[in-house]
Amino acid sequence: MKAFTSWSSGKESCLSLFKVSKDVEISYIFNMISEDNKHSRSHGVDRDLIKLQAECLGIPLLQRSSSWDSYEQVFKQALGELKKKGIKIGVFGDIDVQAHRDWVERVCTESGIIPILPLWQREREELVSEFIDTGFKAIVVSINNKFLGKEWLGRNIDEKFIADLKKRGNVDVAGEAGEYHTFVYNGPCFKKPVEFETSGIVEKDGYSFLEIFRKK
User: Fold this and answer.
1) Cα 6 to Cα 4: distance, rounded to the nearest angstrom
2) 80-100, pLDDT tens digit by residue?
3) Candidate from 9-13, 117-121, 172-176, 179-183 with smallest mean pLDDT
4) pLDDT of residue 41 exceeding 80
5) In the chain, what are the domains?
6) In the chain, what is the straight-line distance between the N-terminal and C-terminal CA atoms, in Å?
7) Do residues 91 and 3 lie in contact, with contact meaning Cβ atoms separated by under 8 Å?
8) In sequence order, which residues have a C-beta less than 8 Å from that of residue 157 and are 6 or more positions away?
9) Residues 141, 183: contact at Cβ < 8 Å?
10) pLDDT tens column, 151-183
11) What is the pLDDT of residue 169?
12) According to the model, what pLDDT value does residue 181 have?
């Protein structure tokens, strides 16, 4: 059966894609971007870099822009387009936030799409370790300033990263509450690594974002 994966550019999206790819055909990556058409809605990653990420994965990309107010309407319109292309399944990377699952199931059901959440109720540290052990490579691209300092931006997701987070005690290891977000640039799903460069840090609404772009 044909499926799309809801794509943030980060580790949970990528691990979900990897885990279901043996059973379903991932025909599209679906990514929501900001209303100014510049950055991904969830992680603040440059939209052109996500296009390159999709190219390196070898999977077609569908991007749609929206404000937070119009997010659900635009999301459902995109699901309708995907359904017309023969897509029957949506793959999502949520772990255990029930409100997120409720929204996914409602929106998909209303759009005639079957939702799959392959990471649901998995232990969080176990998932991050699986991501690392499977061979994926990712860096931190945004942080919630309440939980982490700017020195965490650009860090690789590896076992030392997990150990350092655990020492803090107040941060979810997987960042499921939005403490940090990641960008995946290589791994077993990729046909080639994503070549990127960074240029600085931007702060907005209590969050810090690493500026990351397609390498020139």
Assistant:
1) 7
2) 999 999 999 999 999 989 999
3) 172-176
4) no
5) 2-116 (3.40.50.620), 124-214 (3.90.1490.10)
6) 38
7) yes
8) 11, 128, 131, 132, 136, 137, 138, 139, 140, 182
9) yes
10) 999 999 999 999 999 998 888 999 988 899 999
11) 82
12) 95
Segment 20-46 shows an average pLDDT of 89
Beta carbons within 8 Å of 84's beta carbon, 6+ residues apart: none
pLDDT of residue 155: 97
Q: Which amino acid makes up residue 43?
A: H
Alpha carbon distance 216, 201 (integer Å): 19
**Residue listed under structure tokens 């945004």:** 142
Q: What is the 3-state secondary structure (H, E, C) of the chain?
A: CEEEEECCCCHHHHHHHHHHCCCCEEEEEEEEECCCCCEECCCCCEHHHHHHHHHHHCCCEEEEECCCCCHHHHHHHHHHHHHHCCCCEEECCCCCCHHHHHHHHHHHHHHCCEEECCCCCCCHHHHHHHHHHHCCEEEEEEEECCCCCHHHCCCECCHHHHHHHHHHCCCCCCCCCCCEEEEEEECCCCCCCCCEEEEEEEEECCEEEEEEEECC
DSSP bridge pairs for 116? 91
Query: So what's the pLDDT on residue 36?
Result: 83
Write down how long the chain is. Answer: 216
> What's the rounded Cα separation, in Å, for the pair 74 and 65?
8
